[in-house]
Give the backbone structure.
Amino acid sequence: MTQSANSVASTSGSTLTYGTGSVLKPGDIVLALVVITLWGGNFVAMRFGAQALPPYLLLGLRLATASVALVWFAKSPRGMVVPLMLISTTLCTLHFGLALVGVQYIEAGAGALAMQTSVPFAALLAWLLFRESFGWRRWSGLIIAFTGIAIISGMPQIGAQPGMFLIMIVSAFFFAVATIQIKRLGQVDYMSVNAWITLFGAPQAFLVSWMFETGQAQALSEASLSVYGAFLYMALFAGVIGQGLWYRLVQRYQTNQVMPFTILVPVMAVVFGILILGEALTWQLALGGAITISGVAIIVLRGPDIIAAEIAGSRAP
């Protein structure tokens, strides 16, 4: 992400071939920056919401809200029901859910940077399963990215909750797995797939909340309007609107023209975390973040479609 069910369908190889390769227009550059800003703010909304509501309850509300907006695009899932249900489990229950569990304890900026590990994970999976190119530059990028993550893990705030930071990284891995699952669907309708993922994912999230979480009714009754605004932001602004604009750009341009913008997402998350949540910019976060983003950039820039697509989806968990 790490970033929504609305974003992952764009990682299908078929949807990335639509770009024409024409020069980016100024208006589309502005659109790309708007999307990056929305996705960066999503980590702040996640952090804010997860500290007030049980994480899987929050996820269920987020997915149910997105479903209302997307259900109109759902077409018959004939022949794809089982794969879509499996994707919704990997993406929603495992990726999004674990991300919200972790971000209860991990600050938004550090969490956004942890989510960048989904990119090297996707590169490794693409190499293992599809034999996509993984030369020395991408091995270097992987090592550099995880070196940055190791530096970030030395922050005192993360040192107090190392398990939660690891959960964020495990969440990123499951996003990479979901990317592979969607690639195997072949030629798909983007909006319809996203609609079914949210429709299948919402009941799963509510079920997990019912089985393992407590105090849901009290949390909802005590939640402020800002908390409700947080999950609406996650569902509609970062998810439906942000990814809708992004998909429009992916249709118009080649992957390597728009992917560099997404490297700014964790930067925006760190900035918003400082300005809105009062998070501290430590030397470990600044240095580790710069190293992590550099490693991700090496992997993504001029990379295979599946890797480039992965960084797009990982911005909006």
In short: Residues 8-18, 310-317 have pLDDT under 50 and may be disordered. The two ends are 5 Å apart (CA to CA). DSSP finds 16 helices and no strands in the chain.
